[in-house]
Amino acid sequence: MDSSIDRERSSMDIAIIGAGRIGGNIARQLAAGGHRLVLSYSRDLAALEARAAEMGATAAAPDDAVAGAEVVVIAVPWSVLPDALGAIGSLDGRIVIDTTNQFGAGPMPAEGQTAAAFNAGRMPGARYAKAFNTLTSAFQVETAHREPRVVQWLCGDDQAAKDVVAGLIRDAGYAPVDLGGTAGCAVMEAPRRNGAVYGEEYRLAEALAVVDAVRDGRPIPPTPAY
Ligand SMILES: NC(=O)c1ccc[n+]([C@@H]2O[C@H](COP(=O)([O-])OP(=O)(O)OC[C@H]3O[C@@H](n4cnc5c(N)ncnc54)[C@H](OP(=O)(O)O)[C@@H]3O)[C@@H](O)[C@H]2O)c1
C-alpha cells in the first residue's frame, strides 16, 4: 500500500496551538476520531488542562507540544501569531494546519500576496497547509459529520502534507477540497466578498467546479444556495 495513504489513515499525534473556538472544535473532532491530541498555548493553564481532560487530550507547553507532534494546528488570533510562533520554536518537518485569517493587528502580507504564502514564509521548515479558515466556528461545530458533508478548503505547496491534512479534515467530519498552492488560494481568504468562497458553505460538486475555475484562471461560478 502507498505509504502516504497508510499514514493518512493512521492515528496521529496532533498539537493544537490555541484551543479556542476553532482549535477547540478541531481538537474535539479529531480526538473523537481516535487521534492523540495535546492542547497548548493559553493564558490560563488550569482552564486548558480542564478543556483537554474533557476530550481525552492532554495539555503541554508550546515547545513540548510541538516537539511531540506530527501535525500542528495553529488557531490563534492573527495579532498573536508572532508571539505564538516564538513560543513554539522550530516547526521543522511538522505538518502545519494554519487556520488563521488576517484580521487585527500584526505583520501583514504584501500587496497581492496571499496570507497563506505570507504565513508559510514565517514558518520555516514547516510542511505548511491552510484549512478550516473559511467557515465560522459555530457553523463548523454545527455541521461536523453532517450529510451531505460541508467542504473545508485547503491549500499548500507540499502535496504529501496536504494528503495527510485532507485525511484529518475527513476524520473531523468534513469534505476536503484542495484549491492548489499557497500563491493561488486567494479565493479562500478573508474578507467575504463576491467571487470568493470565504465565508460560504460549499458541498463537493460545487466546490469541484470552483477548483476547475481557479485552475483555469476563470472567475468562480456564483455562490451556491442550499
Ligand atoms: N471564530 C471564527 O469563527 C473563525 C473562523 C475561521 C477562522 N478563524 C481564525 O482562527 C483563529 C482562531 O480564532 P478563534 O475564534 O478560535 O479564537 P479564540 O476562540 O479567541 O481562541 C484563541 C485561542 O488562542 C489562545 N491564546 C493564547 N494566548 C492568547 C492571547 N494573548 N490572546 C488571545 N488568545 C490567546 C486562547 O487561549 P486562552 O483563551 O485560554 O488564553 C484560545 O485558545 C484566528 O486566526 C481566526 O481568524 C476564526
From TrEMBL:
Highest taxon of source: Bacteria
Transmembrane segments: none
Location of the Pyrroline-5-carboxylate reductase catalytic N-terminal domain: 14-102
InterPro entries hit by this protein: D-isomer_DH_CS1, NAD(P)-bd_dom_sf, P5C_Rdtase_cat_N, STEAP_metalloreductase
Gene3D superfamilies, per database record: NAD(P)-binding Rossmann-like Domain
SUPFAM superfamilies named among the record's database cross-references: NAD(P)-binding Rossmann-fold domains (SSF51735)
Tagged with keyword Oxidoreductase: yes
Keywords for the protein's UniProt record, in alphabetical order: Oxidoreductase
Record has Amino-acid biosynthesis as a keyword: no
PANTHER family, A to Z: DUDULIN-RELATED, REDUCTASE
Name under which the protein is recorded: NAD(P)-binding domain-containing protein
Species annotation: Solirubrobacter ginsenosidimutans
